[in-house]
Design goal:
Radius of gyration: 14 Å
Order of helices and strands: HEEEEHEHEE
Largest sheet: 5 strands, mixed
Number of strands: 7
Number of helices: 3
Strand order of the largest sheet: 1-2-7-5-6
Shape: globular
CATH topology: 60s Ribosomal Protein L30, Chain: A
CATH superfamily: RutC-like
Strand content: 25-35%
Number of domains: 1
Distance between the termini: 17 Å
């Protein structure tokens, strides 16, 4: 089944790839690998702000992480000249969670992105991963995730 069809079945339409907010590029292609810069939690209603362990719970954090995964796929689509079907697999994600010093459920938060990618891409969505805490993130967002992808 095509990636576009799977996304459609999940009720997801990829947005336009977010523009960079500072002096960097949104992705770098080298050979058949695409490195996507960190994508912040930004849903249809705007930035998803919060601090896990304080103003936000794990479920809300996981939902924020899913928005990062959708933005990652949008960047991959842009890197592939609009053809998301060129995506071969997710190689690695690095997830940053805006959280209190005593919050320890970063993996559960980043599961929001990982679970979505596996649901949307099947085995091609399975990936290596890191999930770490951050004292703060840009603009006060709850989650930021960067990714490495293989393309055809």
């Amino acid at each position: 089944m095509s990636i576009t069809k799977r996304l459609s079945d999940l009720g997801v339409t990829l947005p336009d790839a977010p523009a960079p907010a500072a002096n960097y590029v949104p992705f770098v292609k080298t050979g058949n690998i695409v490195y996507v810069s960190g994508q912040i939690s930004n849903g249809p209603d705007g930035l998803i702000l919060g601090k896990l362990g304080d103003t936000m719970d794990v479920d809300a954090g996981a939902a924020a992480a899913k928005t990062c995964a959708i933005s990652l796929l949008a960047q991959v689509k842009a890197a592939c000249d609009g053809d998301i079907e060129r995506l071969v697999r997710v190689v690695k994600l690095t997830g940053f969670v805006n959280s209190t010093a005593d919050f320890t459920d970063q993996p559960k938060v980043i599961n929001g992105a990982s679970d979505f990618l596996v649901e949307a891409l099947g085995d091609a969505g399975r990936h290596a991963r890191s999930a770490v805490s951050a004292a703060s993130l840009p603009l006060g967002v709850a989650v930021e995730i960067e990714g490495i992808f293989e393309i055809a």
